[in-house]
Amino acid sequence: MSSNMQRQAVPLSRSEKCIVGTGLERQVALDSGVPAIADHEGKIISADTDKIKIIFSGNGDTLSIPLVMYQRSNKNTCMHQTPRVPRGKLTPQVAKESSYAPEDRLLRAILGIQVSASKETCLKLPIGGRGRVIDVRWIQKKGGSSYNPETIRVYISQKREIKVGDKVAGRHGNKGIISKILPRQDMPYLQDGRPVDMVFNPLGVPSRMN
């Protein structure tokens, strides 16, 4: 049951290497097809947000490996690849627009109406919701339907922190519910002084040996 729930896991934004492994982590990562790996040895000449360029040491050919950027998976999670290799060159910075006209001045100039007489129909995120807009799609229904003939879908990538009540599943069949979140200074620590990130109930492992 716990292994089945591992398929529902949300990917981590800052993943770390496991301390105790089984030895199959590299093969599992290669078989998944997610990492961007070159077929031959070479030198990286450039690495940016959308692709990595490599020049092979043997024949001098170049290879461009595309990277996945903010794509939606079938589980409604975000698929995003970032280069972890040294970059060969720096990309120029894009200037950001920092000046916008006030809302009331814009409505008077374009529509010729007062702000008090207008009605705001824009859709906003709930209070406390934050994220990055990754895609906007405009969908038009065919057949002349009068019920919602046009739909605008905005896809937002959100980063959520773990909270009490979330379910956590391990790689060995153990699972559990987050019952308490403590400050780092209140967590158990090792002999060298390093604090423990997460404490599992040991009864969750033998009870799943079915």
Q: For the residues shown, what is the average pLDDT? A: 73
Main sheet specs: 3 strands, antiparallel
Low-confidence sequence ranges: 89-101
Shape: extended
Q: Any idea what the radius of gyration is? A: 25 Å
Strand content: 15-25%
Please report the number of helical segments.
3
Percent helix: under 10%
User: Termini distance?
Assistant: 10 Å
Helix-strand makeup class: mainly beta
Q: Please tally the β strands and state the result.
A: 9
Order of strands, main sheet, comes to 1-2-3
Q: Write the H/E string, N to C.
A: HHEEEEEHEEEE
The oligomeric state is single chain
Brief account:
InterPro entries: DNA-dir_RNA_pol_su2, DNA-dir_RNAP_su2_dom, DNA-dir_RNAP_su2_hyb_sf, RNA_pol_bsu_CS, RNA_pol_RPB2_OB-fold. The chain has 210 residues and is mostly beta strands.
What does this structure look like?
The chain is mainly beta and 210 residues long. It has a domain at 1-31 and 164-209. The protein has helices at residues 2-5, 25-32, 103-110, and strands at residues 42-47, 51-56, 62-66, 71-72, 78-79, 132-140, 150-157, 167-169, 175-177. A 3-stranded antiparallel sheet has the order 1-2-3, with no helix packed on it. Residues 89-101 have low confidence and may be disordered.
Question: Descriptors for this entry?
Answer:
single chain, 10% helix, 9 strands, 210 residues, 3-stranded antiparallel sheet
